[in-house]
Design brief:
This protein has 87 residues and is mainly β. It has 2 domains: 49 residues, no CATH class; 37 residues, no CATH class. Helix content is 0%, strand content 22%. The chain starts with 6 loop residues before the first strand and ends in a 16-residue tail after the last strand.
């Protein structure tokens, strides 16, 4: 289970992005341009979560019990708690 929150960071001039478990008060710098990254947003699912996959269409599946979205790397549905069918 992941207890740290992951953030999406972007370098303003180059537009390069990274997703990382950022620590408060720490400055993250783009290695190519040398400029500091700006925090763009938090990555879903929010911490703490059993899944390490971000909420994106390619990483989601539909629970066969409650028809709600869940990450592909989970065995039990986070919404209804029941075991989902195999992929």
């Amino acid at each position: 289970m992941s207890t740290s929150q992951r953030y999406r960071l972007r370098a303003p001039s180059s537009g390069s992005e990274i997703i990382t478990e950022a620590q408060p008060g720490r400055i993250y710098v783009d290695h190519a341009s040398g400029e500091p990254y700006d925090v763009v947003g938090k990555v879903l699912p929010l911490a703490p979560s059993k899944s390490q996959l971000p909420w994106a269409v390619e990483y989601l599946r539909v629970c066969n019990w409650c028809d709600q979205f869940a990450q592909r790397d989970l065995n039990d549905c986070p919404n209804c708690g029941r075991r989902m069918a195999a992929l």
